[in-house]
Amino acid sequence: MALTRIEAKTACPGVTLTKTPEGLGALYRPGCAAAVWERAPLQRFQNWIDAIPASQLPKTRTILQPGAVRRAMHELCSASGLSDCEERAMLVDDVAALADIFADLMQAPYLRLRLDVVTTNACRKFHIDTVTARLVCTYRGTGTQYGIATDGGAVDTIQTVGTGAPILLRGALWPVTPDFGLLHRSPPIEGTKETRLVLVLDPITELENSASPYLVQ
């Protein structure tokens, strides 16, 4: 893959921080186990999504072609009862854009898309996912946490991804070594009354039996 020249810095060993979406391509570099696109949401968008009742936040788990994400998100938001406003359009556009970026980087004809509404300690243990790579973006609440576990021990210093900032992580099926010991988790929020809205994208190269209505663009 041809990498775009980027200006980036390192958060911890194996993690690249970038100010541009093109910088996520650093994941293909031998010394990179994860890349974080450091960006902050517009305040009016954040105020809007933070004010939505948890029961009305859009959530789904589906497999679809990247070009079908926008339509699927429009339908999902309508089914959730979200009014058709500028902020809703921002959410739809951003999920669709991240799907396009991720699918292009992974050369994936299909994506597994999850929008999770989280109020408990989901995936609270540090781990590595059994996928080739995964993109995670937290639109509401505390972002994904990560750190280095040396020699199989506990994570020492914990870093937290900013709200609205996508992180692209190598998974256990990534074919390149070395193993940096980079692990991640969902932040422990149980008992805090915090609600998170988290987008997760995984690449799918081949489909088995699926009844998803979004497999044809």
Set down the secondary structure blueprint.
Layout: E1 8-10, E2 15-18, E3 34-37, H1 43-51, E4 60-64, H2 69-79, H3 86-106, E5 110-118, E6 133-140, E7 145-148, E8 159-160, E9 167-170, E10 182-185, E11 196-204
Parallel strand pairs: 2-3
Antiparallel strand pairs: 1-2, 3-9, 4-5, 5-11, 6-9, 6-11, 7-8, 7-10
Structure description:
With 217 residues, this protein is of the alpha+beta class. The protein contains three helices and eleven strands; from the N terminus they run E-E-E-H-E-H-H-E-E-E-E-E-E-E. The strands form two sheets. It has an eight-stranded mixed sheet. A three-stranded antiparallel sheet has the order 8-7-10, with no helix packed on it. Helix 1 (43-51) packs across helix 3 (86-106) and helix 2 runs antiparallel to helix 3. Mean pLDDT is 88; it is low at 1-8.
Give a brief rundown of this model.
This protein is of the alpha+beta class and 217 residues long.
